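Sample entry (655 residues):
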Amino acid sequence: MASIKYGYHVKRKWLEQAAAFYQSEADWAAVLRINIHVQDWEAAALTAAHIAGLPLTDDQAAVFGSLLIGCPDELLITNHVLLEFVLHHCRVQDQELGLAYVDRALNQGSEAHAYVQQVSLYEWGARFAQLLQKKTMALEYLQLAETAALESTQPGQDEERGDREINAAKRKLASRKSQLLAENASRLVKPVQWVRLLTVLAAVTCMISFHYLRLMGDLSRPAMDFIGIAIAAVMLWIVNIIPDYLVALGMVMLWVLGGLVEPEAALSGFASTTWLFMIFIMALSAAVTKSGILYRFSLHALKRFPPHYRGQLWGIVAGSFALNALIPSSSAKVSLGVPIAGTISESMGFKSRSRGAAGLGLAAMIFYGFTAPFVLTGSYTNVMAYGLVSSDEPVSWLHWALYALPAFLIFGIVMLLLLSYMFRGTVAEKGVSAGILNEQIRLLGPLSKEERIAVITILGCILLMVLQPLHGIDSTWILMVGFSVLVITGILDKQTLTSGIDWTFLLFLGVAFSFAEVANQLGIVEALSSFLGGPMAWFVSSPTLFLLAVIFLSFLVTLVVRDDPAVILLVTALLPLAEQAGIHPWILVIIILLSTDPFFFTYQSPTYLTAYYSSDGKAFSHAQGQKVALGYAAAVLLVAVLCVPYWRWLGLIAQ
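Predicted structure, serialized as tokens:
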């Protein structure tokens, strides 16, 4: 009102006089309020800098931060003094917002923050992560803080190496963050208190009911108990209130305590060579990821393709080939590929979720993440799924690749045609700058001796697995030799072995292998085959119809059961029927692997969610993703139909 009555300039003069008065009285909160009221951000920054030099408690700093919460984000993430005050406020009021500010400051405003300030930001990130009960993320922030602190105490000494280590740590943290967000978003039912209680009661009721139910068919009492325990486990997996591996270990405990099987049978999965194979491949993958060599390969692939949209699209596809066999995790690959696509998209001038950004982002998601089933070492789940099959049907790395080659070509062509049609006519405002890629490559630095050893060892292991038909050495022992080389040379140290291997997944995996063995011992597999034999008889008569039925059944199952448990249930249940249909177990496994990661609904696919969150939702929208999901389903159906003649020619399907 004063500005209307007396004019803007008079009001401005009064505010300046008031600010001078409050400054003389050392009432800095009032001065700051006036600065913010007139949106004089330069004065507000100077006032905040003066306040920062005063002895303040955390609570006092939080009060000043509450005043600054309205500052433009662009100013906050680049002005460390202002950001510190706001973070104090977020510590009390909104930890999620505080973590978001830290992440943005590190990713977008890092050049404005000195090494010492970066250390502070990492420590803030660890503090917010701890308050939000994200313990693994908190540990990774602290590791980043330690790396930055070491660099800040040695200015000028191996600066390139310091930058490389910090950027590698940032990529690891960003990957972990996107996977945590994806894990939370993949829950079909949110684990509120009453849902937890009802689920646990239902699981207990299920186990008790099956223990006292009258025997069904030829099933024994231990078999009935096994079914009750398995259904209870599925309930807990669906709601996801208890970690998967803990539910799995609980099953083993109940099998043994209930007298269903001997401990040796209950733990037989941990004695399999496939379980050892998983340990070794995870360790080798950790060494490769630590080296940063795959990120380097992806950048070089992009650099060698034309700088326009279509050229970079093909560069993304080429880069995915280098990663697919070397990182056995779809989520890890999309966490690497989609951000690279985002960087290229920004350098071309594409806006968030624009046609160009979505085309590159979705191409990276599909070819970095969803092509994993076509190579044995493309995903942990591949090895897990085929580990459920009898060892009488071994498949080498080379056999897997040859069996899957036409399927991969069909899948790749369909997805490229779909992406080309959806984003046809897309033209970038400018070509991708070679300087962007060169800067990323520069930050990686030259290959070190340790990195060369890691790369040579990994490639040597893959070559030996490809040549397995000639030398006859099992892949497990080949990887064990590679593992030993990396440990002896110090590439795989204790910290990498501890943090780089997903030990909880290995616990889940060992139980998964035991699950198939125990189900077979108790006659569950035979009974299930008889039960499903009637309804599936028409489909069993035709390999093509059977595979199509498997795909639709898998799509339905993934509406309620997550990917790995769904794979276990489907492979165990359908393997006897596949044998009746004259279909090799490998065909059933790859069809199930392709069909248990759809993303019609966002929560269905951890791979999709990881891709979405690895770009902070900027690469593509869910609406764009769902259109690609329909194309993905069509591609899987075409694989099942068109590859039958090829698989029959190879003898994988009975004539």
